[in-house]
Amino acid sequence: MDPHLLRTFVTVARLASFSAAGHTLGYTQSAVSQQIAALEGDLGTVLLTRRPVAPTRAGERLLEHAGPLLLRLDAARADIARLAAAPPDELTLAASPLALGPAALAALPPTGVTLRVLPREEIPAAVATGACDLALVDGVAAPDDPLRLPDVAPLGVVGADEGPLAVLLPDRHPLAHRTALRLADLADARWLDAPGAGFPLDALAAAAGARPGGLTPALRYEGTDVHTLCALAAAGHGLALLPDRVARGCPAGRAVPLAAPRLVHRTELLSSGTLEGAAAALAGRLTGRQDDDHDESAP
Questions:
Q1: pTM greater than the 0.90 cutoff
Q2: Is the peptide bond before 261 cis (omega within 30 degrees of 0)?
Q3: How far apart are CA 177 and CA 34, in angstroms?
Q4: 45: helix, coil or strand?
């Protein structure tokens, strides 16, 4: 299967237009049509209806495969380019919003680093494709357990930090006086759905051993600003599970430690390939480890 044809197919399906896909990719509309016809001929089935432009059942299945396949190809190209290039003088560090704790911020050198805050789900692909040199990603896990990361490419993974979790509630919430909470105490609560700034509810439910969709969403927040997430929780728009240090630092609301299930906020450092020079030094600062310890691999 020709990856160029596959990329054209994905673009047409995403834009629902042959002409728009041609404009995006730099092809004429007829060239796009020919490429889609060639891919359909290779696979022996129709992948797109023409009026309107939409994937067929076979096309929808191919789209499920196409994303990971193209990402792997981009990751391979970026990996080879890194080997052929000299170590960069300027580094790009990507981080999910809750991964940037005081220790990580203090470890950043005064110059030579660009910091990009990205939604959590975009971090592994950003490392794999060379959009950043290193990344800090966080999530909820059992103590000492690694995070469950998508298998986008072979990545180096090192645990950087673990800490307790807390539930942020409005000051007048009936459970705000508790010294600790169990998720079972909040079975009927409504939660902020904030996958960019907080933890995705499905991932939280899975870590807690609940069924998918077991936590009831309230307001949905699609930004990455943690201060906004805290303000929404304190104002009563839904509960938020946060690192204890973040919840206690909120100017309003009440942070109550999570007692059960036994979960922690875990941060991991991701990299691609062998780290050298400034990248290795920054990785050591962020993890508190020697360079030769940076050899764990994502499963």
A1: no
A2: yes
A3: 67
A4: coil
Tokens, residue 264: 């922690």
Contact between 212 and 141 (Cβ < 8 Å): no
Give me 83's structure tokens: 């080997």
Rounded Cα gap, residues 205 and 254, in angstroms: 22
* Structure token digits, residue 147: 């995070």
Residues 6+ apart with CB under 8 A from 208: 183, 214, 261, 263
Q: For the segment 78-128, what is each residue's pLDDT rounded down to a tens digit? A: 777 766 665 567 899 999 999 999 999 999 999 999 999 999 999 999 999
pLDDT tens string 157-207: 999 999 999 999 999 999 999 999 998 888 789 999 999 999 988 877 777
Q: Is there a contact between 104 and 295 (Cβ–Cβ < 8 Å)? A: no
Rounded to whole angstroms, the Cα distance separating 166 from 248 reads 8
